[in-house]
Amino acid sequence: MNLTWSEVQDILEIYLTTAKQLVRKYKHKWTASGLKLVDRKKIPTWFFIYQYSKEFGVAETELCKKFNYELRNYEANLTKYKKHLEELEKEREKCKK
Predict the structure, then answer these.
(1) Can you give the residue range of the structural domain that contains 75?
(2) pLDDT at 97
(3) How many domains does the chain divide into?
(4) In which region does residue 4 sit, left (phi positive, over 0), alpha (psi from -120 to 50) or beta (all else)?
(5) Rounded to the nearest 10 degrees, how much is the dihedral formed by the CA atoms of 78, 79, 82, 83?
(6) Element (H or E) spanning 37, and its range?
């Protein structure tokens, strides 16, 4: 499941410009970690939840409920993402040597 800025605005009940800024910022973090977006106007829901939780200190379980996203799917995707980041770090270490 992927989100647009308008869905973020509706679910979190925030200003349109704020929703756009958040989605842009999190899309940049997604692509900076070497991952590709399926649709350039959308961001994976679980990734938005993860970044929003980190930035604003909102509980991931609460956000999963708001976005109607299964917690176990969130945790599974987050685990895969963290493994991906570990692999990237290992590659960077190899390049430094």
Answers:
(1) 2-96
(2) 67
(3) 1
(4) beta
(5) -150
(6) none
